C-alpha cells in the first residue's frame, strides 16, 4: 500500500489530523491497535478551547458539537470558603470555552472519516516504523495475522503516551522533562444535573475538588485522593459524602446525587519530550506530552499540535514549502510549554500538598490570594483557560 501520510493512533489527535488532511486532498491512512468501541469507551475531559472549536469546524466535524455543546463564558473558583467567579469572556477579549466531552469529539471525527471514505485499520498489531531518516519511510503492521506494509512520505505519531512512535526514535535523540505529583484524581460520572451552571475548581484542606459537567443532565466530579487509594474502595455514597464535606453548605445543599456511570482514579503527571520531530516522523498530542488535568489542556494541546502539523503539510503539498517541516517542533513546543505551565500552575495552586513546609503552604495561600484577588491575576487565568492564540505558519 501507498499513501502520503501514515497516522498511527485513532485518538482525537490522529482522527482530527486525518480529517483535516483528507479535506485538503492529502491522502492518509490511520492505524489503530484497538477496536472503535474500545476507543469510544475511554472517558476523558470535556472542555474545548475556542481554537479547538474552530479547528473542529474547519475539519467539518462540528454539527453535533455546535448543537449540543454548552458555551461557557465563565468558570468559578472556590478558595478559603469564598466563591470567586472568573468571567472568561469579559477578561479574554470575547473568548469562551465549549463543554463537550472528548468521547463525543472522537465519535464525531470517526463518523466524519467513515462518511468521507478515508481508510482506518482498527485492531492492528506490531506497528513498526522504518527508514525514518530517509525520504522513503514505511510502516509495517499485522492485520488479521497478515503482515502489511505502507510506504509514505511522512508519519504522524498520534499514538498517545504508551504508543510505539516515540519509542521508535533512537536513544539519545530525545530529551525528557517530567514532574509527577503526589496524588491522584478520583472521577465520578453520573446522570444528575450539574451542581452549578459553570465549572467549579475548589481548594479545600481535605483536598482539591472539581465540579464539571458533560451536559445539563450529566455531571462529572473529581476529588483529590492519595495515590495509594483504589477506586473499588470508594462506594458512591462515600464519594458523595466526601464531596459534600469539601463544599460550602449552600452548594452542598444543591448537590443532586445518583448512581455512578463510571468511577476511576487517574495519576497526575507533567511530561514533555523535545524535539517533537525525528526525520519524517512527527509526534503529536499525548505521544509527546502529558499535562495534569487541572487546566483542561490535554486534548487542547493535542489539537494545537494538529493545527501546526496540518498547516505545515498543506504548505509542503500545496506550495512545495518543504522548509516548513523543520519549524514543527519549535512552533508546537512553544505552545505546549505554555499549556504545561498553566496546568502545573493550576495544579500547584489548588491541591493539598501534605509534605510541603509551612513556608510553602503560606506561599500557596498568597498565590491564591493574589491571582484570584486581582484583575491582573484573573486576566492571566482567563486568557490561558480559553486558550492562547496559535502562531501563524509561514
Ligand atoms: N499502534 C496503533 N495504535 C496505537 C498504538 C500502537 N502501537 N499505541 C497506542 N495506539 C492508539 C491508542 O489505542 C489510542 O487510540 O493511539 C491512540 C492514542 O490516543 P490518545 O491516547 O487519546 O492520545 P491523543 O489522540 O494524542 O489525544 C490527546 O487529550 O485529554 C487528553 O490524554 C487525553 O487522550 C487524550 C489526549
Ligand atoms: C472534565 O469535565 O472531565 C474536566 C473538566 C475540566 C478539567 C478537567 C476535567 O480541568
UniProtKB/TrEMBL annotation:
GO molecular function, one term: 4-hydroxybenzoate 3-monooxygenase activity
Record keyword Iron-sulfur present: no
EC number: 1.14.13.2
Domain FAD-binding: 2-342
Name of this protein: 4-hydroxybenzoate 3-monooxygenase
SUPFAM superfamilies referenced in this protein's UniProt entry, alphabetically: FAD-linked reductases, C-terminal domain, FAD/NAD(P)-binding domain
Keyword Oxidoreductase listed: yes
Record keywords: FAD, Flavoprotein, Oxidoreductase
